[in-house]
Design brief:
The protein is built from 16 helices and 21 strands. By secondary structure, the chain is of the alpha/beta class. Strands 15-16-17-14-13-18-19 form a 7-stranded mixed β-sheet, sandwiched between helices. Helix 9 links the parallel strand 11 and strand 12. Bound molecules: nicotinamide-adenine-dinucleotide.
């Protein structure tokens, strides 16, 4: 059966390559599409095209309103294809169809609409404060596009992580080279097609798919790239920082997490039990903001765990395209093996697999990369399972005896992306939230991704924020133009310093 083939998009042209990737469903191993495999020479061409487009200036001189209109047009086009793109997303990365519709595609559309809206009133230029004393100055404050942006994204939430970068970068007037992940690039490449159809000038947006340690490294270290916007693992984020150092690139890094989810003694268990599972298992547990450490007050731990385990046993593992499926496959065989290693390590360290704990058996699971939804009890925060990002449907339950202890355990991690608190006492929950070291705290919920709120983390979860009202700032440089309206003020200023004012 023939499958679609996706090419690179460089300088307004679709370009093929000698080598190809095969994109296979992580559930069935069926071939979904082939994709041109870029080389470092293709990176050079794409960056050169983006640089030429930046220097030519057509896009950065297009009015902010017209730039916003293109982003809004693409949002509308993606929304019109939501069913098709949700299915494609499930096929290429195994995320379940309910999640791909709402989270992957739906939120990406909302994010683009939001950026298009804020771009219209963004202050690209404004009068600076008039200063009269000690010397009279007027000024102009400008925010100018940074230049060529490299947008490098992972496979787990490919479209939203890309839209978080491309929409504000284009709104700012930057030019962009996109590198989707080599395991799940298809929906991202569909987005590029929509931007082409919407009429972006050539060279403004370029896309290629290549191996991370080769093409990704070459792109993020490229001297003509002014900013790297990256989402992925903390390990690669550190490499990006090193690769960016030589030319002092701007970076935003959205990295890993180990979200602590705190259930206080007064939590409403009728929502907290499902909430804890949702926090950990949504998107097959392959979510940076997942709530993977469940911290339960010891006074309710027995009842809570019993209800959690009973509910977890009802989760359906299977075909991600089936709307009844709760948890799909993990991305690759290597990921499956890595996760199984964590599960064995947890058991060896004394944790108890109250649900799951391995790979499922049965004809349905002969092909594909499967991990049983797993809940470990008896976990302590020093265990590997509580410290490392497992990135699969695995939840660790820990207990605490006081709120102070819960906060201490929650903050005892290298990460700081998400955290949550369950309580019927909103004030008490907010007080706990204030003390948690994380960029996003959810009270009585999880995975709340709202375009109005910035997404990002403390500590080794990253640098900078995406989404939210300041998202365009991340793609602009601040410039201040001061205007001397009273003669040679500079000389007089020196005069003041030196004590010999000129006549
Ligand atoms: P990864 O870091 O392995 O890969 C991410 C991207 O970086 C891919 O496109 C890859 O090709 C590229 N890459 C790899 N090595 C590179 C290098 N040396 N230089 C430049 N690019 C390179 O991550 P992954 O396994 O694809 O994704 C999972 C990780 O992403 C998890 O750690 C998850 O927490 C994180 N993530 C974070 C967020 C967030 O917003 N904080 C969102 C989604 C995923």
């Amino acid at each position: 059966m023939s499958v679609p083939h996706y090419e690179m998009y460089i300088d307004g042209e679709y370009v093929d390559s000698a080598d190809r990737y095969e994109i296979r469903s992580p559930a069935t191993e069926e071939l979904v599409a082939t994709v041109a495999k870029a080389t470092t020479a293709d990176v050079d061409s794409a960056v050169a095209a983006a640089k030429r487009a930046h220097e030519a200036g057509e896009w950065r001189r297009t009015s902010p309103g017209d730039r916003a209109d293109i982003i809004a047009t693409v949002a509308g086009a993606v929304y019109g294809r939501i069913e098709e793109l949700s299915a494609l997303q499930s096929q290429e990365n195994g995320a379940t169809i309910r999640v791909t519709g709402a989270l992957h595609i739906g939120l990406s559309v909302m994010q683009m609409q939001y950026v298009a809206e804020i771009a219209k009133t963004y202050e690209f230029e404004s009068a600076g404060p008039e200063v009269t004393a000690p010397l009279p100055f007027a000024g102009i404050r400008r925010r100018e596009p940074i230049g060529v942006v490299a947008a490098i994204v992972p496979w787990n939430i490919p479209l939203l992580t890309l839209v978080w970068k491309v929409a504000p970068a284009l709104a700012a007037g930057c030019t962009v080279v996109v590198k989707p992940d080599e395991h799940a690039p298809l929906v991202a490449l569909e987005l590029i097609k929509e931007f082409e159809k919407a009429g972006l000038p050539k060279g403004v947006l370029n896309a290629l798919v290549g191996d991370g340690d080769d093409v990704g490294a070459h792109l993020s270290g490229h001297p003509d790239v002014s900013k790297v916007a990256f989402t992925g693992s903390t390990q690669v984020g550190k490499a990006i920082l090193r690769q960016s150092a030589d030319t002092v690139k701007r970076v935003t890094l959205e990295l890993g997490g180990k979200g602590p989810n705190i259930v206080l003694a007064d939590a409403d268990l009728s929502v907290a039990v499902d909430g804890a599972l949702y926090a950990a298992m949504a998107n097959n547990g392959e979510a940076c903001e997942a709530g993977t450490r469940l911290l339960v007050d010891s006074s309710i731990a027995e009842e809570f765990t019993a209800r959690l385990v009973a509910r977890a046993k009802t989760l359906t593992l299977g075909n991600p395209l089936d709307p009844a499926t709760d948890v799909g496959p993990v991305i690759t065989k290597q990921a499956q093996e890595r996760i199984l290693g964590f599960l064995e390590g947890a058991k060896a360290a004394g944790a108890v697999a109250a649900v799951g704990g391995g790979a499922p058996t049965g004809a349905e699971f002969e092909k594909g990369n499967w991990i049983e939804p797993t809940i470990f009890t008896g976990v302590t925060n020093d265990m590997e399972i509580a410290r490392c990002e497992v990135f699969g449907p695995v939840l660790s339950v820990l207990t605490f005896d006081s709120v102070d202890e819960a906060i201490k355990i929650a903050n005892d991690t290298d990460y700081g992306l998400s955290a949550g608190v369950w309580s019927v006492d909103e004030e008490a929950a907010i007080e706990v939230a204030r003390q948690l070291e994380a960029g996003m705290i959810y009270i009585n919920d999880w995975h709340v991704i709202n375009p109005n709120y910035a997404f990002g983390g403390f500590k080794q979860s990253g640098i900078g924020r995406e989404g939210g009202p300041d998202s365009i700032d991340e793609y602009t440089e601040a410039k201040y133009i001061s205007i001397d309206r009273a003669g040679p003020v500079q000389n007089r200023a020196f005069g003041l310093v030196l004590g010999t004012p000129p006549a």
